[in-house]
Predict the 3D structure of the following.
Amino acid sequence: MPPARRRRRDAVSADESIPSSAAGLLAHAATLIPEAAATAASLKAPPQLKELVHSLPANHQLLLSLPQALALAISSDPNAGAASTSDSPPPTPPRAAGILLHLLLTHPSHPPRWDDILRPLALLHDRLVLLAIADPPLASLAVACFELAWRADAPGRDALVAQTLPYLVAQALTASSSARPVLRRLFALRDALPLLDYADESIFDFKMLLLRCFVSPLFLKAEEGRKFLALVLGVSEGTAREGLELIKAQVGMTGVKRAAVVAYGEVVFRAWKDGGWGQGGDRGGFPAGSGGSCGACRKQGGGKGGQEDPVGVASSNVRHNALHLLLDLFPLEDPDVTKDVNDPLLEKQFFLLDKLLMDDCPEIRTVAVEGICRVLNQYWEVVPSPMISKFLRKIVDDMSKDSCNEVRLSTLNGLIYLLDNPHSHDILKVLLPRLGDMVSDSALSVRVAAVDLLLAIRDLRSFQYTKVIGLDTLLSSLANDHPRIAQKITKLLIPSYFPSKLTPKEVCARCIALIKRSPAAGARFCEFVLSEGSSPRSIIETIKVSVTLALSQTGLNSEQTDGLIIASINLIKSLSDEGCSGLAALREFFTNEKLKLILKTVASEGARAALLTIAPVVLPDDLSVLHEVCMDIVVNAGMISKQEECQETVLAAHKLIFLSGWSDELFEALTDILQSKACHFAEIYGLEPLTYPVAASRRKKGKSLKKTPASDHASRKGSSISKVSNDELATASGTAWQINEILKVVEMRDAFLQSSHSETAFTSLKVICKVYIEQCLHLPSLDLAPLLAYLSLATNSVLPDVDQTGISCSENPSSKLSQKGKASLKKHKQEAVSQGNAVKGTVTLIMLGTSILKFIVDTTSIQLVNDDKIRCLKFASSYIKYAVLSIKKHQEQSSPFKGDDLKDALMLIRSSFTYAAKLLHLVLRSSTELSNPPEDAFFLANQLLDLVPSIGAFVGSRFAFRFISALKQWLPVLILGLVSCWLIGPHNEIATDFCHFGDSGLPLWITAMAKNELLDAAESGQDEQRERVDEGEDSPSSRKLAEMMVMLLKKGNPRILDFVGGVLLCTLKMALQGSEFGIVLGVTRFVCVRLLGNNSELEALQLTRESLRENFFEIDRYVRDELADDDDSKQQLESAKALIRSVLTDL
C-alpha cells in the first residue's frame, strides 16, 4: 500500500477525526456539500466524506445510529429553526442526509441493514415531488437510492415505486439524446408497474404520462422503450384500451413512417404474446384496412408461427387473445403479394375461426359467434359460400343450444347484426325457423334477444316473423312471461292487432279478435298498447265495445268474457296512469248498475280483483254500490291464505273499503269471526272462558258479540269431544291472514291499532294459536296464518290491558290445557298415529317452531326483546333438541321420513339453525363487560353443533355435508358461544372446572370428534384400538366440522383457543366417570395433536395447560387404582397420559 494512502487512512481512523455522533457526522457533511443554489449538475459525495463513511466497520456505533438520525433529518421541517429556542441545533439540510444515505447503500464491505434504512428511504420517497422542483440533483440521487433498494430486493421495496416510476417516465419523455440510459433504468423497474392501482383517481397524472409514451419517438426507437410500452398495455384493461386507440390513431395517419408502423406492430405483438392485455372486456382492434399494421404484426409473429400455434395452446387466455387479434385483423392479407399467395392464408383464418367456434371455453365461443357474424356482415363477398353455410349452420344448430347462456345470447345478437347485410337473407330464411324454441329459453336475456330478433325481422319485407316463431307460441309467452318480454311482443304485434293507420272501429275489431283467440294474451297485450304509442281514441272505443260484448255474452265462453273485461281494465289503468282526457267519457259509460252487472258476469277471481282495483277510477264519487260486494268477499273468504287469486280479490276489497271510509266495519267483521272461532275452540278444548272488551262505538250496550253456534257441546261435557273441523280451521286461517295483510299496510295498520277491535283480535288469536299448536301434531297440514298474525300484531302494537305471556315460547303449550283438554289431545294423538299422519305432523310442528324462532330473531334484532333473552335461548335450544330427537325417533321406527317429507324437515331444520345462530349472535353482541352472557348461550351453541353428527347419523353424510355449508359462516359465532361466559363479562377468571353440561351428558359433536380421532390413530398405527371402534361410527361430516374448527382456532385469538381447549378437556372427567375411556383418549388426542400441535404459544394457553395437568393426575389415579376394567381400557388411558406428557414436558 502506498505511504500516502496509509497516512490518509491513519488520519481517518484517528479518534479526533471521526465525529462522536450521527448528528455530528450530519453537521460535518453539511459543511462539505454545496448548497442547492450553488450547483445545477449532478450531486456527488465529497471524496473525504465517502472515505470516512466507507472506512468505518459494520458494527461501528456511528453507522448503527446513522439511519435513525437520517430519518429525523429528512422528516424535519426546514422552517422549524426560526421558531425553536436558541439552544436547539439548526435543522440539517436534506442534501447531507441524501448523500449519507446513498453512501450507506453503496458501502463496499457490508450490505445495508434494510430494516433500519427503509424508514429514511420512505421519508425521502414521500418528498420526491418537492425535491424534483426545489433540488433536482438531490431528487436524482434519491431515485438512485430507490433503484438500489429495488434491485437488491429489499423488504418493503414496494413502498418506493409510487413516485419513482412517474419521475423516471417524466425524465425519459424530456430527455433528448440521453434517453436510452433512462429507458434502461425504467425497464429495470418493469416489475413495479403492476403494483399500482390504475383504477384510483390519484394516479390519473401518471396514466397520462404513460399514454404520452405511445406517441414519443424516443420510446419507439429504443428496444427498451418498445418493451416498456408492451408492458404498459398489460397493467390494466383501461390503459390497454386507451393505448391501443393511440396506436390506431398513429398508424392510420397519412404519411406515417414505415419504421413507426413496424415499431407499433412489435409493441402490440409483444403485449399479445405475453398475455397481459386483451383478457377481458372491450378491445379496440386495428382497422382491417390498415395494411401497414397488419404487415407489422405478421412480420413480428411470422417467424414464430411454426413454433407455437396460439389457437391450440392449453391456456384459454392465450386462445382468447388470439381470437380477438384474428377478428380485429380479418382479413389478414399481404398487399404486396398476389391472390394465389393470400388464398391459403385466408383459408387458414377460416379454419382457425371454425376451430375456435367449438372451443371448450364458453367465453371464447361467445366471442367467436358474434365475431364470425360480424365478419360475414362486413366481408360477405370475401368468404366462400360453402364456408358461409358451414358457419351459419353451426351457429344456428349448435350454438343456439349451447349450455352457456352467454353463448346462446351471442348467437341471437350476432344474427341480428348479420341481418343488416341483405345478402344473408336468403340463407337465413331457411335457418332461422330452427330457433323457434329460443323464445322459451330458461334465461331471460336470451328470451329478450329472441324477441329482438323477431322485431328485426318484422321490418324486413322479405321475412315473415311468424314463420320463425309461431303465433301461438308468441301468445303463450305474451300471456305468461316477464313484463319485458310481454312489452316487446306487444310492440311486435301492434301493427297487426292495433294498427295506428286504421279507424278506431277497425282497430277495435282486430283487438277483440286477438282477445277471443287468446284471452290471457289479449288482456296482457292491452296492458302495453298505450305505452307503445297507440291512440287513446282507439283505446276508449275498444274499452266500450269490449265491455258491451262481454255483458251480452253472445257466443262467448266464460274465459273469453273475463278476458274482455280484464283487457278493458288494463286499458283503463294505462289511461289513468298517463292522465289521458278520455276518462270522463268512461265514467259516463260505467254506471253503477253496469258495474254491478259486470261483477256478476265475471267468473274468475282475477277479473273480480281487477274490477275492484279500477273502481275508484271509473266511480270516483260514489263507491257505495260496491259496499255489500266488498263485505261479502271479506266475510266469505275461506282457504284464502293458500289461494293467490282469491288473495288478490280480498286485498283489492280491503283497499276499496279503506278508501271508502268503511274500515271500522271491516275490522269489526274480521274480529267477530275470530272471536266466534276462539270461543268455539275454547269450549271444545276446555279452555278457560275468555272475556272480551266491548266496542261501544259499534255495539249497543249489553249486546253480546256474535258467535257461531257451538252445537250442544255445553250439554255434552261428559262425553267425548270431537276435534275442530277443517272448515272451521280454514275460516280462522283465512281471517287471520286478512288481519296480517292489514298490518302490512301502514295506513290500515295505524287505523286498526287505534281501533277498539285490535284488543279483541289479539285475545282471539291467542286462543286460536294455542289450539293450532296442539293440533299441529295430528293434522296432515296446518296453516301458519293465525300464528303469523298473532306474532305480527304482538310486534306492532302495545296493548297494556292484555296479557301477552299466555303463549310462552319456552313452555309446553299443553300445560295450559285443562284435564279434559289433555285427555282429548291424547286421544287425537293416538288417532293421528293410527291414521299414519305422525310424520306429517312432525314436519308441521317443525315448521311451526321455525316460524316462532324467526319471530324471536326479528323482535330481538329490533330490540323488542331485552329482559327475556334467556327464555328465548332456552326455547331455541329446546326446539333444536326436539327437532333432532323427532327425526331420530321416526327414523328408528316403522314410519321414517322419506322423499319430500325428509327434504322439507331438513330444510326447516337448516332454516332453524340459521335463526338460532343469529339469535346467539345477537345475544353475544349485546353482552358487555358488565353483563355476563347467559349460560344458555353455551348450551345453545352445543345443541347447534350437535346437529352435524345427528343429521349424519340419521339421514346420511350427504345431507350432513349440505348442512355444513350453512354452518360454516356461523362457526365463529358458535365457537364464541362455547366460551362466551368466560370470555366476556366481569367473571372471566380462569378456572379448570368452569364447564358444566348438566344432565344432558356429553355433547354429540365432541363424542363424534373423539371417535374419529380413535379411527385416525388406528389407521396411522399409533395404537391398536381400531377393534374398539366400529366402522359405522366414522362420521365424515363431524370430521369436516373438526377440521374447520381447528383451522379457525389456529388463525384466531390464542385466548379463544385456550378456552375451547378447556371446554373440551372438561369433558374428560365425565367420560372417566362413565367409563368411556375411548372418548378420553379421543378428546385428549384432538387437543394435544390437532389444537396444540406445533403451537409456539403454548405458555400463553394457561387454562388448557392447567386442565391437561389436572386430567393427567385424574387419569393416572384411574390407572393406579385399577378403575379400568380391562387391558384395552388401561392401554387407552396410558396412551392419553403419553399424549399429555408430549405437551407438558415437566410431568
